[in-house]
Amino acid sequence: MENQFKNNAIRGPINSWLLRIISAYMHYKFGEMKRVLFKDHPGTVVEIGPGRGENMRYLRKGTHLIAIEPNVHMHAGLTKTAQKYGINLEIRSLTGEAIDLDDESCEFVVSTLVLCTVEDLEQCLKQVKRILKPSGKFVFIEHVKARDNSVLAMIQNLLHRPWHYCFEGCHTNRDIQPFIESAGFNRLEIESYNLYSVIVPIIPQIRGIAFK
Ligand SMILES: C[S@@+](CC[C@H](N)C(=O)[O-])C[C@H]1O[C@@H](n2cnc3c(N)ncnc32)[C@H](O)[C@@H]1O
């Protein structure tokens, strides 16, 4: 799927730069849970929307990372991060809705802070499930819609429009969990929590593993 929206000549480089400057903060906020979720990952990992490669520091040196990243403005950063962490990087400039990998060809698919942005979430999860081998894992950390009538929900709704524009299609208030629950995985481990940080719209989150 062609996705011009993810290749905006102004917002693309700005968002790539932003990911770089918040990298240490994201590591501080997410590092521990990522270490737990990614531990025991296999030699090849597929990541949907890796951005500049924030998750590479949690992968073993020498890991083959297949990066499904439609935003070309992220690619130079991805390559740089891969060199830094000794990752064997393969970039595929595709959306998560149009992954070109074979059926049942992967054991481990990762997505962090991406399902908020994919245009067709159902199709993206369909692709994730299609490429996973039986009992393969889909590991995710996503920000989600806040509880109805809460202050966080009000903030998410208020900021949704400018946020969606600036961050190239990100929805502050997407209810992602029901999509994962109805994607047909065999078993799900999902935890809802608030990750308090200065990035208020992304405080409500879910993390977990979907087993094919
Ligand atoms: C907020 S960034 C998160 C980057 C990284 N996963 C992280 O945790 O730092 C969202 C990423 O999803 C990518 N993205 C947006 N739409 C996508 C789609 N349809 N398929 C795959 N990736 C997508 C963006 O280009 C961007 O790199």
Automatic annotation (TrEMBL):
Single GO BP term: methylation
Coiled-coil regions, chain positions: none
Domain Methyltransferase type: residue ranges: 46-140
Keyword ATP-binding applies: no
Alphabetical keyword list: Methyltransferase, Transferase
InterPro entries linked: Methyltransf_11, SAM-dependent_MTases_sf, Thiol_S-MT
Domain of life per record: Bacteria
Claim: Nucleotide-binding is one of the keywords in the record: no
CDD domains documented for this protein: AdoMet_MTases (cd02440)
GO molecular function terms noted in the UniProt entry: S-adenosylmethionine-dependent methyltransferase activity
Listed name of the protein: Class I SAM-dependent methyltransferase
